[in-house]
Amino acid sequence: MQEVLPKLVEIASHGLIEVHDTTVIRPLPPGEKHVPDVPAAKLESRAKMMRILIGEHDKWNDRPLYEALVQALRANDIAGVTVYRGILGYGANRRMHKDSTLNLSHDAPILLTVVDSEEKLRAFFPVLDKMVKQGLVALSDVDVIKYSHAQPLPETQEAQK
Fold first, then answer.
1. Measured in whole angstroms, how far is the alpha carbon of residue 101 from the centre of its chain?
2. Are strands 41-55 and 109-116 parallel, antiparallel or unpaired?
3. 95 Ramachandran zone, left/alpha/beta (phi>0; psi -120 to 50)
């Protein structure tokens, strides 16, 4: 409060400033029970990160390759993948790929970032071999820190404890 008061006095140079302690109560919606804040569980481990670089117009069975790869990764029980669309880049052919309405090349770079165990990622390589005709795959070690919020037990399970 002491840090804010000089600024308040400057703003409200004519008038009164009332200062007092306040208790704020936020009622819960009907039927909702108060759940105490539970700190997030923090899990740390080692894993591999696979980065797959392809072109936006690359296809697999007449669909975008990045979509087909995401579905294949999910079907192979890979922990997670995120697809990024690049705004600028070039590859082995050294042709610039730029995200711009004025640029002739609309084949933007696509990056899929995948994280899981080395065994699961290496087991996925035969699928990549079939699907990716031109691209780059980079595999690296990563430290994984996963935060997850503990879910409160349903009342029936709490009563059984």
1. 28
2. antiparallel
3. beta
The whole-number pLDDT of residue 35 equals 65
Measure Cα distances from 14 to 20, 22, 79 in Å: 20, 24, 61
Report pLDDT for 120: 96
Q: Which pair of structure tokens corresponds to residue 2?
A: 């002491």
Q: What is the DSSP string of the chain?
A: -TTTHHHHHHHTSSS-----------PPPTTPPP----PPEEEEEEEEEEEEEEETT-EETTEEHHHHHHHHHHHTT-SEEEEEE-SEEE-TT--EEE--TT-S----EEEEEEEE-HHHHHHHHHHHHHH-SS-EEEEEEEEEEEEEPPPPPPHHHHHH-
Predicted confidence (pLDDT) per residue in 6-61, tens digit:
777 777 777 777 777 777 777 788 877 766 667 778 888 999 999 999 999 999 99
Domains annotated on the chain, with CATH: 41-143 (3.30.70.120)
Measured CA to CA, the distance from residue 161 to residue 158 in angstroms comes to 5
